[in-house]
Design a protein that fits this description.
The structure holds 2 protein chains of 2 kinds. Chain A has strands at 3-5, 10-14, 19-21, 24-26, 32-38, 44-50, 56-58, 64-68, 73-78, 87-94, 103-104, 108-113. Chain A is mainly β. By secondary structure, chain B is an all-beta fold. Chain B is built from no helices and 11 strands. In chain B, strands 2, 4, 5, 6, 9, 10 and 11 form a 7-stranded mixed sheet that branches. A 4-stranded antiparallel sheet of chain B has the order 1-3-8-7, with no helix packed on it. The chains are: A mainly beta, B mainly beta.
């Protein structure tokens, strides 16, 4: 079955430490891939997206993500986390040529220790 | 420039009551979506409309109906509300193909008692 999975429900990192949030997908062909962030009580904001080409994509707020076809993964990274990065992060996929069905993973809640 | 507007923002229903959640966008986007967000479950797709005149089921359509009234408006109806439908509901839009950025409303917090 087609799915997108975020294995980590909660992650806590210290401010200034590096961060990696995992995302795995299961689709016949590589879908369009996205990371969104949701701050408390807010809607979702796009961080970055991948369609094709360079497998390392840069986004807003210093985030980047790496697409690995062999692992069906699209992990989000940040070299140095700031307290303001505390939020919930969602990986999302939209299958290519499948009517724009945009599906989200279960989310990872990031907490940042001072 | 309002973007994506959802009404109401908050609602409390009794079990068995019906209601319609409204979503309107002024972005001239083709695709519109309804999601529900529950703790630990992420955003789950209820229904979506890839273009005016079409609607399709998502992951969790049972208990819901939708209407794509025109290009701007996409409503979600609960015919007989159940406590399991207590959730935060988000409407979203997408301009064109699936590689576009999605834009979200501020959400509707629904409680069914």
């Amino acid at each position: 079955a087609q799915s997108v999975t975020q294995p980590d429900i909660h992650i806590t990192v210290s401010e200034g430490a590096s961060l990696e949030l995992r995302c795995n997908y299961s689709y016949g062909a590589t879908p369009y891939l996205f990371w969104y962030v949701q701050s408390p009580g807010q809607g979702l904001q796009l961080l970055l997206k991948y369609f094709s080409g360079d497998t390392l994509v840069q986004g807003i707020k210093g985030f980047e993500a790496e697409f690995k076809r062999s692992q069906s993964s699209f992990n989000l990274r940040k070299p140095s986390v700031h307290w303001s990065d505390a939020a919930e992060y969602f990986c999302a996929v939209c299958p290519y040529n499948a009517g724009n069905m945009l599906t989200f993973g279960g989310g990872t809640r990031l907490m940042v220790k001072p | 420039n309002a973007g994506v507007t959802q009404t109401p923002k908050f609602q409390v229903l009794k079990t068995g009551q019906s209601m319609t959640l409204q979503c309107a966008q002024d972005m001239n986007h083709n695709s519109m979506y309804w999601y529900r967000q529950d703790p630990g479950m992420g955003l789950r797709l209820i229904y979506y409309s890839a273009s005016e005149g079409t609607t399709d089921k998502g992951e969790v359509p049972n208990g819901y109906n939708v209407s794509r009234l025109n290009k701007r408006e996409f409503s979600l109806r609960l015919e007989s509300a159940a406590p399991s439908q207590t959730s935060v509901y988000f409407c979203a839009t997408l301009r064109g193909q699936g590689k576009s950025e999605a834009f979200f409303g501020q959400g509707t917090r629904l409680t069914v008692v």
